[in-house]
Amino acid sequence: MPEIAVHAARRTKRLTCVVRRMYIWGMVHLSDYMAAHGLDDDQVAKGIQRTRETVSRIRRRKLRPDWETIKNIKEFTNGESTADDYMDLSEPQEAVAQ
User: Fold this and answer.
1) On the CB side of 69, how many CA atoms lie within 13 Å of its CA?
2) Checking CA distances to 64, which of 1, 21, 72, 74 falls within 20 to 30 Å?
């Protein structure tokens, strides 16, 4: 039984850190992340496995990424940019899984 308590405590601590970071730093769109880290479209495209053109459209807020792309962005940014950061954009006009 103590193993379960320790496991739950680790999860709670990790969740608390993630939630606290979101409230302190706020939401981070891909364009903000790129500017803060000095990244260009080509570097991000390689990191999220999409074309440079797709990254450019997401960065300029012309396109909301699909779920697979959002997952890749979240992994690439170590969780700093999530699906919530793209909710205020309109639906994708065309597929971005390129």
Assistant:
1) 23
2) 21
CATH code linked to domain 27-86:
1.10.260
Length of the chain: 98
- Signed CA dihedral, 37, 39, 43, 44: sign only: positive
Contact 86, 57 (CB under 8 A): no
- Alpha-carbon distance of 65 to 86, in angstroms, equals 8
Output 20 or 69, whichever has higher pLDDT: 69
Q: Per the structure block, which two tokens stand in for 97? A: 């899984």
Give the whole-angstrom CA distance, residue 24 versus residue 32.
15
Q: Cα separations (Å) of 13 from 7, 9, 19, 21, 85?
A: 10, 6, 10, 12, 24
64/8: higher pLDDT: 64
Angle at 60 between CA 35 and CA 18, to 5 degrees: 55
